[in-house]
Amino acid sequence: MYIDPTVYTGAPENLSSRAAREQDCYRLLEALGIAYTRVDHDAADTIELCHEIEGLLGTEICKNLFLCNRQQTDFYLLLMPGDKNFRTKDLSKQLGVSRLSFAGPEHMQEFLGLTPGSVSVLGLMNDKEHRVRLVIDKPLMDAAFFGCHPCRNTSTLRMKTDDVLNTLIPALVADYTVVDLPIPEPAE
Fold first, then answer.
1. Is the backbone of residue 59 left (phi > 0), alpha (psi -120 to 50) or beta?
2. CB-count exposure of residue 78 (10 Å: 0-12, 13-18, 19+)
3. Distance of CA 55 to the CA centre of its chain
4. Are 35 and 65 spatial neighbours (Cβ–Cβ below 8 Å)?
5. Phi-psi region of 97 (alpha: psi -120 to 50; beta: other; left: phi over 0)
């Protein structure tokens, strides 16, 4: 995977060369006065591919999981540390929801306007009817910085967590749920 080793401040100079959803992210961050740094790279749609990018940005990239209940009537965007393993039963128990599973790409497109591998908290700007419930794993809230894609997995942003929690998220959703997911024990 190619990674441009340059760490940029702010949006690309030529926004028109970027996808519309990515452009929307930069415009939103600018409108909210949120400062960020950026690294551009080939598509990075897994956490494993993001480790070199994390080194350049100096922060861990958030894992973003788009989930739904069994009936596919309730949808959740879970933000959690990138290297933390996810177990459905742990989240289901804390949310009081049975049988959570990964939502399909058709729902991801419908509610967030995104494709697999590009999901991020910024995608909530496309959820005009507020159908997706935001869920944040507590360790993310304690970090100094927050790393995510700008709705496209060919760039990664680093923002202050305080800006994400106190400016970005309130601009996107009325409320969110904090969970404290355990670190799963290794299988024997």
1. beta
2. buried
3. 18
4. no
5. beta
SS3 51: helix
Number of alpha carbons in the 13 Å side-chain half-sphere of residue 162: 3
Count of CB atoms situated within 10 Å of the CB of 124: 21
Nearest to 62 by CA among 73, 53, 74: 53
What pTM does this model have? 0.93
Tell me, what amino acid is at 171? A
Per-residue pLDDT of the chain (188 residues; tens, 9 = 90+): 888 899 999 999 999 999 999 999 999 999 999 999 999 999 987 777 788 899 999 999 999 999 999 999 999 999 999 889 899 999 999 999 988 999 999 999 999 999 998 999 999 999 999 999 999 999 999 999 999 999 999 999 999 999 999 999 999 998 999 999 998 666 55
